Amino acid sequence: NCHARIMILSNNVNQNGEDDPFIGKCYHFIGSVYWSQIKLELALEYFSKAIEILQQSENQKISLPLLIII
C-alpha cells in the first residue's frame, strides 16, 4: 500500500531530521509515489525537497538522477 509506505518514510524524516541524505532519498520515493498517482503538485513538492537535501550532502552524485527525472 503506497499510503502506508509514505507514512513509514515520513516517520523516518521525524527520526533522522531533514538534513540526512537518506531522507532525501525518502522524499524522492514519496514524490515517485505521488507521480504514479498523478498527484503532480505533491510529487513536485517532494522531488524539490529531495533535490535540496541531496545537493547539500557530501555525495552530490546522488542528486544527479533526480535532476534528470524532473
Tell me what the structure shows.
With 70 residues, the chain is mostly helical. The chain has four helices and no strands. It has helices spanning 2-16, 21-36, 40-56, 63-69. α2 packs antiparallel against α3. The longest helix has 17 residues, at 40-56. It is flat. It starts with a helix and ends with a helix. The mean pLDDT is 75.
State the helical fraction.
over 70%
- Main sheet characteristics: none
Low-confidence stretches: none
| Morphology | flat
Radius of gyration over C-alpha positions, nearest whole angstrom:
11 Å
How many alpha or pi helices? 4
Give helix and strand order, one letter per element, not per position: HHHH
Task: Give the beta-strand count.
Answer: 0
Report how far apart the termini are. Answer: 24 Å
Structural class of the helices, strands and pairings? mainly alpha
Averaged pLDDT:
75
Work out the strand percent. Answer: under 5%
Jot down its keywords.
70 residues; 4 helices; mainly alpha; flat; single chain
Question: What are the SSEs and their pairings?
Answer:
Elements: H1 2-16, H2 21-36, H3 40-56, H4 63-69
Summarize this entry quickly:
It is built from four helices and no strands.
